[in-house]
Amino acid sequence: xxxxxxxxxxxxxxxxxxxxxxxxxxxxxxxxxxxxxxxxxxxxxxxxxxxxxxxxxxxxxxxxxxxxxxxxxxxxxxxxxxxxxxxxxxxxxxxxxx
Length: 98
What we know:
Layout: E1 5-6, E2 14-17, E3 19-22, E4 27-30, E5 40-43, E6 51-54, E7 70-73, E8 84-86, E9 95-97
Antiparallel strand pairs: 1-5, 2-5, 3-4, 6-7, 8-9
């Protein structure tokens, strides 16, 4: 559950919002007093590209499994997924492993 903060304390970038509901005759807002100038706010962290750190593999034995390791991070600590795309030398077909 998100605890809303006063919109005045929400720094850009962020999401400012209020709720307006009506039944066609009566209306209500949340916050109840001056929601346009005093909305709720949720701060949003700046999103930057993930950083990928790994050691290049320059050679590997034929017909043996190869393990590749990478450390992938971003400033939000919320990397959703990492996918390795590869192809064998001289072949145009690209494979992927998630």
